[in-house]
Design a protein that fits this description.
Number of strands: 21
Distance between the termini: 21 Å
Number of domains: 2
Helix content: under 10%
Length: 267
């Protein structure tokens, strides 16, 4: 019986990498600091009246430019309410907001993308609409920024977010300047249990993991289509295993083959 599986790395709610970017006309600001200036949390000093500034905090995409951000140590997951927030340097001018907008797409594998529906008049469904407050960026009730709900797309989880400057498709103030993306609802992908004989992960976001079990035997890892992805001999109650070669996707970890029927998927 597998009693617990834990990640051997600390996860956080921020984007961890930017695997692709393509700049459009007018870009340049922040490129010397890319990608670090769009990873991690948003600028904590930002307020609606005094938004983030400086090339070390922002990246200008340029007209129709785009950037992809990846969450490597966790997934954004679909739970009640908003699931992630995009932060741009929107300014409250006193008579309205100065807005520079971007389309928002998400993906589980970085190849197949789904775009959030948007409205060119109300700007609903776009990023770059609401200012950052400087308060807890993982709490949509106080953070500001623009929130997005995976429920709107019928997705349970994603690992990639793509932002594309709206160009001429939307009448706004100019070029989108990305500050950061924060997960609101997120998971490291490991289901923990004190009684399960089998556990599953949404994707291998980790290079190693620790298995703690009351039993010994063979721990097998299967892909969702039944192919073996890894196998380890567990001869002690706690073992740290190498997971760097595991493929992406939903994986099933089974201790001894007799436990395979007990498999259950993450929500």
């Amino acid at each position: 019986m597998i009693t617990l599986i834990l990640l051997c790395m600390l996860a956080d709610p921020w984007a961890d990498a930017s695997p692709a970017v393509e700049y459009g006309p007018g870009a340049g600001y922040g490129q010397a600091y890319y990608p670090e200036n769009i990873l991690g949390p948003p600028d904590p000093a930002a307020t609606p009246e005094s938004p983030s500034f400086g090339e070390n905090n922002l990246l200008t995409l340029g007209t129709d430019g785009w950037v992809v951000l990846e969450f490597t140590d966790n997934s954004i997951i679909n739970e009640d309410g908003a699931d992630f927030t995009v932060f741009e340097n929107v300014m409250d001018t006193g008579s309205g907001y100065f807005q520079e907008c971007a389309f928002v797409e998400v993906s589980q594998d970085g190849q197949y993308w789904i775009q959030f529906p948007w409205d060119a008049t109300t700007l609903e469904g776009l990023a770059g609409v609401m200012p950052t407050t400087g308060e807890d960026p993982t709490n949509p009730a106080v953070s500001g920024g623009d929130q997005f709900d995976l429920e709107d797309l019928g997705l349970d989880w994603v690992r990639f977010v793509k932002l594309t400057d709206c160009g001429d498709a939307v009448s706004d103030g100019g070029l989108f300047d990305l500050d950061a993306i924060a997960s609101v609802n997120w998971s490291t992908g490991i289901e923990k249990s004190t009684t399960a004989t089998c556990l599953s992960v949404a994707s291998p976001f980790f290079s190693s993991f620790t298995v703690k079990t009351e039993d010994t035997g063979t721990l097998s890892c299967y892909t969702i289509d039944g192919r073996i992805a890894g196998r380890w001999l567990i001869d002690e109650q706690s073992a740290t295993l190498n997971a760097s070669s595991l493929p992406p996707g939903v994986l099933f970890f089974v201790l001894n083959e007799s436990s395979f029927p007990a498999v259950k998927l993450l929500d």
